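Usage example:
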Amino acid sequence: MSDLFAAQYRETRTQLSEQACVLHGYALDVVDALLTDIRAIEASAPFRHLVTPGGHVMQVAMTNAGTFGWCSDRRGYRYDRVDPQTGTRWPALPPAFLQLAANAARDAGFDGYVPDACLINRYAPGTRLSLHQDRDEDDRVAPIVSVSLGLPATFLFGGFARADKTVRVPLQHGDVVVWGGEDRMRFHGVLPVKPGLHEILGEQRLNLTFRKVK
Ligand code: MD6
Ligand code: FE
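Running the assembly step on the lines above writes:
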C-alpha cells in the first residue's frame, strides 16, 4: 500500500448494518503496544486448540485476557474466570486494549464501553471459523469490538438465521469491526485465511474480540 492510500484508507468506515461497521485502519497507531501485550498474555496463558462440545478440535488457536475467558470442551461453551489449562486467573486486560476498545466503540456510536473479556484468536494459513453467533455472554446488547492484525481475511457477515445470505467483508491489518444493539446476534464467520507473509506478523492472522460478558 502506498502511504497516501494508507492514509486515506485509515479515515474510512464501512457500514455493514444499522449498528455494525468496520473502522478501517483504526488500530494501526497502537499495533506495537497491542503486540507487546499479546506476547505477555500468551506467556502466562498460551494459545491452545479447544475442543468443541461435538468433539472437534478447533482450527483457530485461542487464549483470553480479562475477568472472563471463553472456553470450550466436551461439556459445552462457557466463560470462566480461571484458565482451565493453568488453573489461574486469565491475564488482566491491558490499558492499551481497554483504550482501543472504548475509543472504537464510542466512534461507532456506543458510549461508555467497558469490556470484561477479550478472546484472542490465532489463524494459520488455511484456518477458517465457521458461521456462528456469539451467544455465551449475558449481555446481548453491548457491542463486540473485533481487531484484525496480520494476514488479511474475509469476514462473513450474515443474518439472524444460519441459512441467511452472507456478505463478504475484507479485513486488513489494523481494521476494527464494531457491532452491537440490534445487530449483535448476527451469524458470522471467517473464510480460510490465504497463505501469505505479513510484514510484521509473518504467516498468521490475529484477532482480538472484546466482549461484555456480565
Ligand atoms: C475473527 N471474529 O474475526 C472472529 N465475533 O477472527 C468473531 O467471531 C467475531 O469479529 C463477533 C463480533 C466480531 C467478530
Ligand atoms: Fe464471533
